[in-house]
Amino acid sequence: MIIFMRDFVAEMGQDQTKQQTEKGLKLYQCNDTEKALYVWMKVLRKTTDPGGKFRVLGCLITAHSEMGKYKEMLQYSLAQINTAREMEDPDYLTEGYLNLARSNEKLCDFQKTVSYCETCLNMQGTTVSLQLNGQVCLSMGNAFLGLSVFQKGLVSYEKALRYAHNNDDKMLECRVCCSLGNFYIQLKDYEKALFFPCKAAELVNDYGKGWSLKYRAMSQYHMSVAYRKLMRLPDAMECCEESMKIALQHGDRPLQALCLLNFADIHRCQKDVDKAFPRYESSMCIMSEIGNRLGQASIYVGVGKCWILQKEYDKALDSLQRAHDLAEAIGNKLCILKVHSLREAVYRCKEQQEDLREQVVKFLQCVEELELYCGMCGESIGEKNQQLQALPCSHIFHLKCLQTNGTKGCPKCHRTSLKLGFV
After folding, report:
1. Rounded to whole angstroms, how far apart are CA atoms 67 and 73?
2. pLDDT value of position 345
3. Phi/psi of residue 389, each to 5°?
C-alpha cells in the first residue's frame, strides 16, 4: 500500500510538471516571455521528476537562445546533460549534447561545437535520437563554417538537407537553406547565396502557417544580405526592414544585431558612412552583450571599410586589428584573410611598401591554408562574385571549369563521379 501511494504521488507530480511546462509554452508562444520563464523556473525548483526536469530545461535553453542570453543557455545545457546522465537514456543524452553543441556554437566556440556534435552522432540511441541527427549536422556545418573549413561544412549541410528530405522536415530544411545562403555569401557565389534563402522563404509560405515567425524573419535577413552583395540595395533594405520588424516584435536580440549590421553595410555600400557608423555601434552593443564574437569581428571589418572610404587610414588599421584579434581567437581564417586584403589596400594608399609586401605574403599564405582555389584552373575562389559548384565529394570548383574542362573524376580526391552535388 505504501509503495502504491508513493507511485501514485510520483505520477501526480509528473502530470503537474507536464501541465505547468505546457502552460509556460503557451505563454511563450503568445510572446509573454517573462511569465513563461517564471512558470518554468518554478517547475525547475519544485519538480523531482528527471524527465520533467529535462523537458523544462529544454524550454529554458530555447528561450535563452532566442533572447541571445547564450551564457545562461550554456548553463541550462550543462544542467540538462547532467540530468540526462542521471537517467542513463541515450535519447536524452543525444538531445543534451546537441544543446551543448548549439550553446557553444552561439558563443563562437566552434571546436567544442564540433566535438559535441561528433559525440551526438556516435550515440547509439533509438529512432527518436536518430531524428535529431539532421539538427546535429546543421550545427556541425555552422561550426565548420565558423572555422572556415568549407569542405567539411558543405558535407555537414548536405547531410542535414538529406535528413530533412528523408524525414519530410520542412523546418529543418528551411534552417539549412538559410545556412547555405550564408555559406555561399562567404565564398562569393551570390546567385546561390540568394537562391537558398529564397527557397527557405518559399518553404515558409507553403508550409509555415503554424510556424514561428522567426523562420520568415531568418529567411528575409539572409535574402537581404544576398541582395546587398548583388548591389540590389532597395531590395536589401526592404527585406532587412521586414526581418527587423519581426525581430523587434519577438524580442529576438541576436537577429536585431544582425539586421543592424546589415543596415550599416547597406549604408556603407551607398557611401553614406554617417548613417552607417551609428548602426554599427548599435549592432556592436548587442553583439558584445550576447557574446557573438564573429559578429563583432564583422562589425570591425565594416567600420574599417568606412574609415578607408574617408581616407582615415590609421583609424581603419585600428579597426582591422580588432577584427583580426577576434577572428584569431575564434579561429575564423576567412575573416583574417579579409583583414590582410584590406590592410594591403591601406598600405598601398599610404605607399608603405614593406608593410604592403608583408600583407601580400600573409594573404597568400591564408589562401593556401584555406584551399580557396579551383582545383581545375588554379584561380582563387571567394575573391569575386563567381558561380561555384560542388561535386559529391564536396570539393568546390568554378562552375565554368566543370562545364568546359571535362574530367573523369575530382581533381582533388580523384573520386570518379562527376554528378553535381546536392547543394
Report:
1. 10
2. 93
3. -150, 135
Cβ atoms of 390 and 378 within 8 Å: the answer is no
Cell digits of residue 188: 562569393
CB 255, CB 290: distance < 8 Å: no
Q: What is the pLDDT of residue 4?
A: 41
Burial class, 342, CB count within 10 angstroms (exposed 0-12 / middle 13-18 / buried 19+): buried
Cell of 359: 600583407
* Per-residue H/E/C for 148-165: CCHHHHHHHHHHHHHHHH
Whole-number CA gyration radius for the chain: 23
Sequence-separated (6 or more) residues with CB below 8 Å from residue 9? none
Helix (H, G, I), strand (E, B) or coil at 398: strand
- 8-state DSSP, 389: E
Give CA 30 to chain center in angstroms: 26
CA 153 to centroid of chain Cα atoms: 11
| 374 in Cβ contact with 367 (< 8 Å) | no
Per run of 10 residues, the mean pLDDT along the chain (length 423 residues) is: 41 71 88 90 90 93 93 96 91 93 97 96 72 93 96 94 93 97 94 96 90 93 97 98 95 96 98 97 97 97 97 97 97 95 94 92 88 78 75 78 71 62 54
Residue 165 has which C-alpha cell?
528530405
Cβ atoms of 399 and 388 closer than 8 Å = yes
Query: Strand pairing partners for 398?
Result: 388
In one-letter notation, the amino acid at residue 279 is R
Let me know the angle formed at the C-alpha of 359 by 292 and 382, rounded to the nearest 5 degrees.
60
In DSSP terms, 390 is beta-bridged to 396
Nearest in space to 213 (alpha carbons), one of 163, 248, 169: 248
Q: How many CA atoms lie within 13 A of 99 on its CB side?
A: 31
151 CB-near residues (< 8 Å, 6+ apart): 371, 394, 395, 396
